[in-house]
Amino acid sequence: MNAFLAFLAAVPILNIECARILGVIPVASYSHQVPFQPLWKELSLREHQVTLMTTNPVKNTSLTNLTEIDLSFTYEIYDKYNFTGIISDDSKSFMEMFKTIKVMLEEAGDYQFQHPQVQNLIHNKEVTFDLVIVEAQLPGMMTFSWRFNCPMIGITSLDSGMQYHLAMGNPVHPILNPDYNLPMEDPEDMSFKDRVVSLLYYLGYSFVMYHRTYPEVQKKQRKIFGNDVPHPSTLHDNMAMLFINTHPIFHSIRPLNPNTIPIGGGIHLKDPEPLPKDIQRYLDTASEGAIFFSLGTNVNERMVENIMPRVLEALGEVPYKVLLRTDKKLKNVPENVLVKKWVPQQDILRHPNLKGFITQGGLQSLQEAVYNGVPLIGIPFLGDQVANVNRMVKKGYGIKLNKKDITKESLKEAVMELMTNPAYREKAEELRDIYRDEEVPSLQRAIWWTEYVIRHKGARHLRNPVVDMPHWKYFMLDVFVFVLALLSLLVFMCFRIIKTICKLFSVRPDHKLKTQ
Ligand SMILES: *[C@@H]1O[C@H](CO)[C@@H](O)[C@H](O)[C@H]1NC(C)=O
Ligand SMILES: *[C@@H]1O[C@H](CO)[C@@H](O)[C@H](O)[C@H]1NC(C)=O
Ligand SMILES: *[C@@H]1O[C@H](CO)[C@@H](O)[C@H](O)[C@H]1NC(C)=O
């Protein structure tokens, strides 16, 4: 009877109805926004009331439980600072890049917090939430969890920065898990130079983050939210859970605590839809195989201006049809190349005649290609693209070309190698079978764990005690000192005993000597 009552009492808790969820994805980048769009949609269809701060609102009126706060003006601020140009410009020093991005993010943040609807979230005491889901990128945004005094889930469209892994108690080892932005030649077997770089990066990043950036962020947040806002590290150390967009095919293996949920199985992958008629016809007739060329949305036209003429020359000389996506008006387009401004990339990669994909190596493009068993040529430009493409080469499902080395000959050679050597496709198909073999689809997993955090009010039982542990305790310094002291005492005592015994035995010989 008691058990039955307990069961009844548990039902309303387990059946969380209509939780109020705030999503905050402030980074103006299509690839930061698109992986989570299915999550917001699905949560709202499960009758949760979702409010979302986003730079890419989907504005689907049939999703009545999804309220979007449109921050799309953030793109204009990024453009003003030439964001994508700066981070891919090899002539700029790291510090120069870092400073510009810092100023840019500050300006963007100022405008985002000043947005009337965001101001309402901050100041209207009647607004409450049961959960906030915040992109684990800009620490200031985590203040919303403090404002609403509710559990927080961090979410990333790539692997996560080291501070968030540390906040979950996951190991951050500069040799086993170098930062995802470092352009390592082979992240699984790093050279001595890369290992030195990785360690220095780790130390520098930690110092700048915790001792330079965070105090400034806190100051700013106190102006916006009030004078009690805690240090950003306190906020992220209290995160209930972290969702990371990683998968063993695309990232290094890392041991994860149960509060860190990988959702890298292609959470953004859509169900197939019919292709536009002209593209369908174009690919259907490409029985000798077709190639898709697209450098994604972050690589802007200014960056590819000087390579495009050579790319077109090379593609004009290969015996395959090429579908090329670009926003730019191109001159001298060869006959076998079809240029489009916008294309449904996932459906194109699904087409059976599509045999190769030339990409910048963004994570989502790689996920889509592997999901469809399509081998690639990677031309990395920025961010994690270099590491992604290096890993792709190591796994054997693609070829890397440096953007500096692109000539008509090198690209043509790479295309011919990709299309005529079956090894790349075989490898891509092998990985496709691994990638599709998921215990639970990533979207379902994300939903389940989101509701789990709501049901269990932050799921504190999954928290790793290491997060609150001082370094001396973690590295057992006190224990070592104690054991060393004990050992020293032991050695000292043994020494004394031996000395005493020696004395006892040496007394007699001494004696004898003297008496003889
Ligand atoms: C929105 O949520 C309400 C319950 O809060 C539910 O009745 C309704 O069906 C939901 N609408 C959609 C489109 O999911
Ligand atoms: C809006 O969402 C509904 C419900 O999932 C979906 O059926 C519809 O296709 C969406 N509309 C657009 C324009 O995406
Ligand atoms: C951005 O790039 C444009 C064109 O290359 C240049 O005129 C402008 O000064 C740049 N702006 C900044 C802030 O670097």
Automatic annotation (TrEMBL):
Keywords: Glycosyltransferase, Membrane, Signal, Transferase, Transmembrane, Transmembrane helix. InterPro entries: UDP-glycosyltransferase, UDP_glucos_trans, UDP_glycos_trans_CS. The chain crosses the membrane at residues 474-498. Its main location: membrane. GO terms for cellular component: membrane. Residues 1-18 form the signal peptide. It catalyses: glucuronate acceptor + UDP-alpha-D-glucuronate = acceptor beta-D-glucuronoside + UDP + H(+). Its EC number is 2.4.1.17. The keyword Acetylation does not apply. CDD domains: GT1_Gtf-like. It is a single-pass membrane protein. One of its GO terms (molecular function) is glucuronosyltransferase activity. It is found in: Membrane. PROSITE patterns: UDPGT (PS00375). Belongs to the UDP-glycosyltransferase family. This is UDP-glucuronosyltransferase. The lineage of its organism: Eukaryota, Metazoa, Ecdysozoa, Arthropoda, Hexapoda.
